[in-house]
From TrEMBL:
Signal sequence region: 1-25
Pfam families, alphabetized: Cu_bind_like
Native source species: Macleaya cordata (Five-seeded plume-poppy)
GO cellular component, one term: plasma membrane
GO molecular function, one term: electron transfer activity
This protein's name: Plastocyanin-like
Length: 172
């Protein structure tokens, strides 16, 4: 019985850790309700987003008409897919942002020439607040502060969810 309890505790710890990691991610839908289409200013859209490692960027579009290629800066500047490091064509593409760097995405079916390209900068995860950070938090933008509060509330919610899931797994 002691082994059963230890295994259950280990499983609970693993599930909480996994959910905290997944729930804290943000999905940035390119173009918001306008999606991935020609004639949209994606530079304006990306400048109003803050991307962190662990977030997703997702593209929504007509799957038989457009696609998405991850390219380098030269491919982005010239609308070429030569040397692309990734390509997607499902119409609902979710791309995990796993590194702190600048990413470049273009449409490879010619849409790039009509504005279907976006460049984003992915930042490292913010450090947890400390007493000195709390005293200077007024320097943070309202958007950044709101995102941190949202992420924190998601982490708390995931803990509650994990408790329910764990209890259910014990009973079933």
């Amino acid at each position: 019985m002691k082994i059963w309890g230890s295994l259950l505790l280990l499983r609970l710890f693993f599930l909480i850790f996994t959910l905290n990691t997944l729930v804290s991610a943000t999905d940035h839908i390119v173009g918001a309700n306008k999606g991935w289409n020609p004639g949209i200013n994606y530079t304006l859209w990306s400048n109003n987003q803050t991307f962190y490692v662990g977030d997703f960027i997702s593209f929504r579009y007509q799957k038989n008409q457009y696609n998405v290629f991850q390219v380098n800066q030269t491919g982005y500047d010239n609308c070429t897919i030569e040397g692309a490091v990734g390509n997607w064509s499902s119409g609902k593409d979710f791309i995990f942002l796993n590194k702190t760097k600048r990413y470049y995405f273009i449409c490879g079916t010619g849409g790039c020439f009509n504005g279907m390209k976006v460049s984003i900068v992915v930042h490292p995860l913010p450090s947890p607040p400390t007493a000195s950070v709390a005293n200077t938090h007024h320097h943070l933008s309202q958007k950044s502060a709101a995102q941190k509060v949202f992420r924190s509330s998601l982490l708390v919610s995931s803990g509650a969810l994990m408790a329910v899931v764990s209890l259910a797994s014990i009973w079933f």
